[in-house]
Amino acid sequence: MAQAHHSDDNAPKHEMEQQLYEVREKIHPRSVSGWFANWRITLVLLTQLLYYGLPWVPWQGRQAVLFDLVNRKFYLFDLVLWPQDFIWLAGLLIISALSLFLFTAVAGRLWCGYACPQTVYTELFMWIERACEGNHIQRKKLESMPWNMQKLLRRGSKHLLWAALALWTGFTFVGYFTPIEALASEVAQWQLGPWETFWVLFYGFSTWGFAGFMREQVCKYMCPYARFQSVMFDPDTLVITYDYKRGEPRGARKRGQETSGLGDCVDCSICVQVCPTGIDIRNGLQYMCIGCAACVDACDQVMAKVGLPKGLIRYSTENAIEGKYTDAHIWRHSLRPRTLVYALLLTGIVGAFLYTLAERIPLRVDVIRDRRTLSRETPDGQVENLYRLQIINMDQRAHRYVISASGIDGLKVSEGDSVAIAGLDTANISVSLRASPTKLDHPSTPIRFEVHADDAEKIAREAKSSFLR
What local confidence, expressed as pLDDT, does residue 63 receive? Predict the structure, then answer.
C-alpha cells in the first residue's frame, strides 16, 4: 500500500523556470559583397521587375496576365484558361513540387537563398534599412540609443519607405486579379472597392510584418520547408559547408604570420555577422541555413586578406568534405538514383503537361434534359425530346458551331442545329431531337451530341445523354 509523503513546509523551495520559446535577439546582418551576393542582387531585381511589371504589359487589348475571378477566366498571354481547366493547375503544382525535390536533392536550398519571396522582400527591406540607418554597427547603436530626434527621423523615414513599398506590393498583387489600370484609376479617385481595399492592405501589412520585423523567424518557425528539407538531403547533396578538417583548430593570425598547429580559420566570426538567420555555419549544417552563401563571400574575402586559399566555407558535399572524393568529382556524384528518378519523373510530367496543353480543345459542351417535357409525340407520329446545351467557346476567336446527334437510326436535330458564339463566350441553346418510334427498342436509349466548329475541324466535342421513348 502506497504511503502518502508530506512535504516539509520549512524545506527550501527550488523553483525552475523553463522557457518554451527562445527569446529573439534582433539580428543586424553585416553587408557583404562577392560573387554570390551579386547573384542575389540580380535575382532580386529580376524577380521584382517581373512581379511589378507583368501586370502592366498589354496584350491584344487586355492585360497580358490576369486572373479574372469575376468572369472566371485566367489570361496568360495567348492562353486563356477556365475553371474547367483545373487539371493543368494540378499539373503545374506537381511540376513545382518535383522541381523543388530535384533542386534540393542536387544543391540544397537554392530556392530559399535566392528566389523565395520572404528572402527577396527581406533583402529589399534591408536595403532601405541600411540607407536610412547605416551599417550593422550604426544600426546596433541606434537600437540601444534612447529616443531622440535623430532616432525618430531615421526610424520614421525607414518605416515610411517600408510602408510605401509594402502598399505598392499589395496593390500589384491585387492588380493580378483586377485589371491594374482600372485599379490605379480607382485608387487615384479614392473609389477603391471594399474587397480591393482589404486585399491591398492585408497583403501590404503581411509584407511589412514578415520582411520588416519577423524576417528570419519566418524561415525558422513558420516555413515548413525548413523542417522537412533534411529528408531530401543525403551525403552527396551540394550544400554550404565549413571545411572543418582544414579550418580547425581556429586561431587569429596576421597576414604572412607563421602559425603551428592552427587551422586556416582565423576565428573572425564574420561568417556569423553576415548570416541573415544568425547561425554559425562552423557548427555544421543547420535547418535554419537558407543557403544564401553570404558566409562564403565573407570568408573568401577574409582568406584573401590573410593570404590563405579561398574555399574554407564553400558549396560542397558531406562526402567531399570527408575526403571520399574531391570537389572536382562533386557534379559526377549529383547523378545518382534519387536525382535521376526525380529528373525522369519531372521530364515525363513536363512533357505530358506541354503536350496536353498544346492539344487542348478550346470547347466545352454540357447537356441538360428539358425537365418540363421529357418526351412527347409530334403530329407526324415521331418522338421528340428537348435538351438544353451549354456551349463554351474557350477560344479567343468567334466560331459557328454545328450540332448533330447519333446513337439512333434516323435521329435528327429538328431545332437548334447551329449557333454562333463570340470568342471567350458562352451560349445556352434549346435543341430538339426527333426519332421514329419504330427505332426505339428501349424506354431509354443512349445517344451522343457532337458539336464542332465549322471553320476548324479539330475544335469538336461530344456529350452523352439519353433519348426517352
Answer: 94
Three-class SS state of 447: strand
Q: Which residues contact 192 (CB under 8 A, 6 or more apart)?
A: 183, 186, 200
57: left (phi over 0), alpha (psi -120 to 50) or beta: beta
Cis peptide leading into 249, omega within 30 of 0? yes
How far is residue 336's CA from residue 338's CA, in Å, rounded to a whole number?
Answer: 6
Residue carrying C-alpha cell 458562352: 426
pLDDT of residue 189: 93
Q: Rounded to whole angstroms, how far apart are CA atoms 41 and 292?
A: 11
Instruction: Kindly report the number of other CB atoms within 10 A of residue 130's CB atom.
Output: 17
Beta strand extents in 394-441 (DSSP E only): 399-406, 412-415, 418-421, 425-435
- Residue 141 is classified by DSSP as H
Neighbours of 327 (CB within 10 A): 14
Indicate the DSSP class of residue 106: H
> What integer pLDDT is reported at residue 15 of this predicted model?
52
Those residues of the chain that have pLDDT short of 70 are 1-24, 256-258
3-state secondary structure of 465: strand
Q: Output the pTM of the full model.
A: 0.83
Q: Which three cell numbers stand for residue 267?
A: 576565428
Neighbours of 104 (CB within 10 A): 23
Phi (first) and psi of residue 385, to 5 degrees: -120, 145
pLDDT for residue 5: 44
How confident is the model at residue 297, as a pLDDT?
A: 96
pLDDT of residue 158: 96
- Secondary structure (3-state) at 136: helix
Contact 29, 126 (CB under 8 A): yes
> Which of these, 187, 159, 189, 190, lies nearest to 174 by C-alpha position?
187
> Residue 81 gets which letter from DSSP?
E
CB of 258 within 8 A of CB of 272? Answer: no
Q: Which domains does the chain have, with CATH numbers?
A: 35-229 (no CATH), 237-318 (no CATH), 363-468 (2.60.40.10)
Per-residue pLDDT of 310-344, as tens digits, reads: 999 999 999 999 888 888 888 888 888 989 999 99
Q: Are 440 and 407 in contact (CB under 8 A)?
A: no
Q: Is the dihedral of CA 127, 133, 134, 139 positive or negative?
A: negative
